[in-house]
Amino acid sequence: DSGVGKTCLTYQFCxxxxxxxxxxxxxxDFREKLIEIDGEKIKVQLWDTAGQERFRKSMVQHYYRNxxxxxxxxxVTSAASFRSLPAWIDECKQHALGQEVPRILVGxxxxxxxSVQVGTDLAQQFADAHSMPLFETSxxxxxxxxxxxxxxxxxxxxxxxxxxxxxxxxxxKPLILSQPPGGDTVTLARGRDKGEEKASWACMC
Length: 205
Ligand SMILES: Nc1nc2c(ncn2[C@@H]2O[C@H](COP(=O)(O)OP(=O)(O)OP(=O)(O)O)[C@@H](O)[C@H]2O)c(=O)[nH]1
Prior knowledge:
By secondary structure, this protein is α/β, with parallel strands linked by helices.
């Protein structure tokens, strides 16, 4: 939903800091980060979608194609944002983004521990029912456990969350069917085309 912290989370991952000021996303914003997994350079593109209804119904619809993974975000201090999740999951399913693509659930704003409305147990039950791993984090204080002592506690680090998605994508790289011209041998190659510098995946928040 709008205001759960999607822009802050993607900014924290790509720029390594919490943005001073954010405004409601209009349509879709793109952020990217070059990461390395097992010696392979991978460009991860994060498509930060608008939560506001008026943009969601118009502009966001056009960006469901070419999505390789989905990050569903709710705000742990907003029960309403948690209740909206089934509608977002259905919307993704309507665009062929169901269990066949990596999907994860992220509860954000864990630093606001005194205002929590969505407990971990409830969120975990929901995540299990939808076959998604659950992460709880804070874009504002990514290494906080809500007690202000800077330790990691039970809160997941923003970078670790997106790296988990990247690892999932890497391990699921589709088999590319290639047939040499004139030959009668079919070669199944993993992942990227020959000569391509780096792999690239898009992930929608
Ligand atoms: N305390 C706290 N505030 C946060 C956190 N993440 C985001 N915020 C605040 O929540 C508000 C909304 O954050 P955004 O990242 O713009 O939310 P969004 O989900 O991108 O919203 P839309 O673009 O409208 O869909 C801002 O005032 C942020 O400063 C967090 O982890 N902790």
